[in-house]
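mind reviewing this fold:
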Amino acid sequence: MTAFRRQWRLPVKYILASLSVLLSMTVATFAAPVMTVETDMGVVLAGENGMTLYTFTKDTEGVSNCYDKCAVNWPPLLVEGNTMADGDFTIVERKDGTKQWAKNGMPLYFWIKDEKKGDTTGEGVNDVWHVARP
């Protein structure tokens, strides 16, 4: 019986280690990389970097309509890795195959001209861009 246990001890150890690795690879994060910051316009949503997030009135719920030059000036808040949506935050699939964070279905963007945490220089641009609120 001792020889039998020794024979199976090593493979079981490898199987358990392999299962542990597989589980860690498939576990997804369930949080949007979003925080709130105090600005001259009150509390707004911001990316993890503290930069203000915006919504685009030409988007519809679950659909981004900002591409090409628009996306250069208004970079989308992209989803990284296996992150999954939770609560008020959802994920929008862009037509280029990337995924973008949305709040209540409305895609979220940064404004290229904001320079520091709390800047809100994108508010009201062309009457279609607005700070995202918590």
In short: The two ends are 64 Å apart (CA to CA). The chain is about 20% helix and 20% strand. The CA atoms of residues 29 and 83 lie 5 Å apart. Helices lie at 2-26, 69-73.
